[in-house]
Amino acid sequence: MDRHIKAPLNDDEVKMLKAGDYVYISGTIYTARDAAHKRMYEALQNGQEVPMPLKNNIVYYMGPSPAREGRPIGSAGPTTSSRMDKYAPLLMDQGLKGMIGKGKRSAEVREAIVRNGAVYFAAVGGAGALLSKAVKKAEVIAYDDLGTEAIRKLEVENLPAIVVIDSEGSYLYEDVAKKYRKI
Alpha-carbon torsion 101, 32, 27, 77, what sign? Predict the structure, then answer.
């Protein structure tokens, strides 16, 4: 099913999403990759604030290429999500509602998604130039010393993604594999 959703997310909207749904995300989302996740994780472990609002927000595992003239961002493709698996459960426990990346997630992340009523989306890897067209505005808000891995606040319009793990724990990659094993 195709769904148009607005970020930040709300609980009712997240509950409606099912593994396999195509979504078009509009609104405010944030980017963060490995180094930024490590810093946020360490800050939370030390009782400190993180530089982006977590409650009901979406983080996109993406490090953009430099913006071309007249564009807010360069290529905006997803990175491998499993590299953030160590950090994701704590961020979800603090209110993070959605993650966008590519690839599989650990059992611990899947459990945290269900526990927190969150959702994991996949964006198409290798389509960064196309995905960048959904980004209308981008600004670095933290960790600018990390370059492309700095945390950015993005305004997006109809960013395409697929629900891979829904709030009930349905996992598209496993569910589809089971379906085709029966055939």
Answer: negative
- The answer on pLDDT for 180 being more than 90 is no
Cα separation, 78 vs 181, in Å, equals 29
Class of domain 2-182: alpha beta
Residue 119 identity: V
pLDDT in tens, 36-46: 999 999 999 99
pTM exceeds cut of 0.70? yes
- Residue ranges per domain, the chain? 2-182
Distance separating the N- and C-terminal Cα atoms of the chain? 23
Contact by Cβ (8 Å): 60, 7: no
DSSP string, 68-88: PTT-S-S-----BGGGGTTTH
According to DSSP H, which parts of 86-138 are helical? 88-93, 107-116, 128-132
How many other CB atoms are there within 10 angstroms of residue 121's CB atom?
A: 25
CA of residue 113 relative to chain centroid, distance: 12
> Measuring CA to CA, which residue among 1, 30, 32, 33 is closest to residue 17?
1
